[in-house]
Predict the structure of MFS transporter.
Amino acid sequence: MVGDQLARVALAVLVYDRTGSAGLSAVTYALTFLPDIAGGPLLSGLADRFPRRRLMIGCDVARAVLVAAMAIPGASLWVLCVLLVAVQLLASPFQSARAALLPSILTGDKFVLASSVSNITGQAAQLAGFVTGGTLVAAFGAGNALLADAATFGLSGLLLWFGVRERALPETTEESKGWWASLSAGALLVWSDRQLRYLVALACVAGFYVSIEGLAAPYAASVGGGPAAVGILLAANPAGQMIGMLLLTRVAPERRLTLMGPLSIGSCAPLIGCVAEPGLWVTVALWMLSGLCASYQLAASAAFVMNVPDAQRGQAFGLARTALIVSQGIGVLAAGALADRWAPASVVAAAGILGVLVAAGAAYGYAGATRRLA
């Protein structure tokens, strides 16, 4: 993840420097999300049909090769975008296999705590990549940043090969083994269960508060900052999430679920303060507070995975992840397009207002679904 965030900073700076367009910079950033429109539904089911550890290793090897190709000097923006899409397509089966494997190792609240440790580690790595990204890109160039990202995929594959043992897949019926049958069964499971449906809706609130990441480069420019300011802005939200998840793990399991609604609203509300066009450090504080509340995603994700049968866990998680990533990609694209017409600070504030409304509706729906089952 350190390498991924370093590569994101490199691409955002590269495209904005070449074009001067907030819209094109946001499009490139959004391409790290949008391939899940296809990858989530079509490829996540592989985690229910093939050994999950081996699938993850294969995805790592392929992504190492593709990202290394992105570092070839003189590659056009179109070539970079195509390779980026291919890399992100492979993220779907990898993440689905990873999400399905963890509950097989740890169960109950141990799984929730393990998810917290995993997410905090991921946020710390994301934070490190964003904080150092701007400085490293400025010092060593975008190509070397991409090579570093390729190396991290190779390291991930080695860690899986030597550090994780293979586990047998759960038994499945003949009807659920086909690609279309698996996709249909997973979609029906998620859509027919009200709790799962609203958990997905709560997760998709991220589309509003993540949209700020696509505006980091133009926002930094508007406050007189350079590549280092881009990295600092991008680091603010994951830094807040890391602190929030540490605090959330100290809360009783039942209390975590009741906090999901208020925290989802709080993940967007601080962004409204950007309407005053504060300077860099006030903005960093607001974005960090947004991330602090966004830690509710830990409880939402754990509740979703634990309520899905193991035999369908890969496909169902892939569909939920698709909804999450697509909402993020659309949010980044919309914010980038609007930022070509209006000030980035105003666009961030608008995303905060809309996010509060959507979060309130999703929280109300989940509370109602939970009461019906009580």
Observations:
- The radius of gyration is 20 Å.
- Residues 108-140 form the longest helix (33 residues).
- The mean pLDDT is 83.
- DSSP finds 17 helices and no strands in the chain.
